[in-house]
Amino acid sequence: MRGLVLGVYTEKSKSGNDVSDYTKSFKDVDEKTNSSLSKTLKQTGPFCKSVKQKILWMPVESKVKFDCISVVDLGTKEVKENPLEGIDEKLERVRSSIADGVKALRSCSDFEEIYLDSCDSPQCAAEGANLAVFSYDALKDQSSLRPKSQFHLYEYDGIPKEYISDFEKGSHLAECQNFARILMDTPANYMTPSIFVKTVTEKCKDSNIKLIARDKAWIESKKMGSFLSVARGSEEEPKFLELHYDGAPDTKKCIALVGKGITFDSGGISLKPSPDMDKMRADMGGAACVTGTILAASKLKLKVNVKGFIPLTENMPSGKATKPGDVVFAMNGKSIQVDNTDAEGRLVLADGLCYAQQFDPIVTLDIATLTGAMMIALGSAATGVFSNDDEYWNVLNKAGSVTGDRVWRMPLYDYYKKAVKASHLADINNIGKKGREGGSCIAASFLNEFIEPGNKWMHLDIAGVMECKDETSYSCKGMSGRPTRTLVQFLKELEGSFIEKK
């Protein structure tokens, strides 16, 4: 079966949302049906607040070769942006509306092919559709699963040529975010550090990404004692994965992405409560997002150089595990008093950050499901960001507005830095002296101890956005892969930084 999603613009009235105009794709189909499509839609009455789409089944003798059309409400044609929302609402409406239309079609029947209205933003249309239908079902009985739908751009006479390439870009972006979701949602017994490396290597085999998988001996040779302290309790060998993408070969400049790769977090000796511990299979969300971002940069042929650094391990309790009160040494020689083994993400990132800065990046970003406190602070509305540089923060903030996957800046006050340094046994303490107060800020200040003076850095705490909830119409059950698309847009915004001046 073949389905079609078309958009219309509406204006509010006493009875609901009345159609005020049609997209070019809608007009093209309407012309081919001798205006019967618009007449049929009008007979259904206005759109209402709770229903943003309508299903219209096409007669067998119709000249339009679609079995069913889902018409979606795009809202007003002229969108008035709300600066308090921090989002490009026109683009977001396209993602959400197309997602609504696709889900409505698939609720009716199985459609092998679904064609999409560009709604003047084909990239967003492709993103909304492909993100909306994602599901992790690799371990289920495949014979019981519904068939997948293939998405195509609806093309009409005179459609801009760039629409076709933009649609392809959106499909690539969604694919890479969905790959991050697969990595996050895969059960921990099927996504150990070694399997993560193997999976990513297989995914990137036809790309121009260079992968280097480091073993425990190499990690020890680099004196990454902070990272190794987390790995001690697990039977699984730790790995340190590097991904190098050189899209601007004429310059040595690069951007460093460091991803937290805890493939399962039990909390170690500071054991987590049992409820929801299963979701700690996604505690490598930072590693997944770094992988998805670099894969997307390669697919889109971005003119940037990016290096990804991913320390991978489990955090498990055993007779070999790090104990609360132990002192370990990071790669830069700083001693760390580990008072809570469940604050392990910052320990693996510490060494990852030290190593990443050896490549002299123009900016380093670390991405991690780091603190439950961030979930309390922002919920799933935005990624919390700590930055020591205004310029790069502004670029990231703009990127989040474009993608609809927002970021929000948090403070890096000396107040929190002093708390981290209040350690009885070592240079710094992994949880500071403030207890549960300002937990996300304490964690960021801990990481700041491993940034060399003068180096530009941002820390993205993605704990709140780890799992999909009810944020958008294109959110669906499972892990989110956020903020992969925002990171890709961040790289795109910085392409100009890699042009060497002659």
Automatic annotation (TrEMBL):
GO terms classed as biological process: proteolysis
Keywords linked to the UniProt accession: Aminopeptidase, Hydrolase, Protease
Enzyme Commission code: 3.4.11.1
PROSITE patterns: CYTOSOL_AP (PS00631)
Residue spans crossing the bilayer: none
Single GO MF annotation: manganese ion binding
Listed InterPro entries: Leucine_aapep/pepB, Macro_dom-like, Peptidase_M17_C, Peptidase_M17_leu_NH2_pept
Domain Cytosol aminopeptidase: 340-347
First-level EC class: hydrolase
Pfam families documented for this protein: Peptidase_M17 (PF00883)
Catalyses which reaction(s): Release of an N-terminal amino acid, Xaa-|-Yaa-, in which Xaa is preferably Leu, but may be other amino acids including Pro although not Arg or Lys, and Yaa may be Pro. Amino acid amides and methyl esters are also readily hydrolyzed, but rates on arylamides are exceedingly low
Family: Belongs to the peptidase M17 family.
Protein name per Swiss-Prot or TrEMBL: leucyl aminopeptidase
Source species: Argiope bruennichi
Lineage: Eukaryota, Metazoa, Ecdysozoa, Arthropoda, Chelicerata
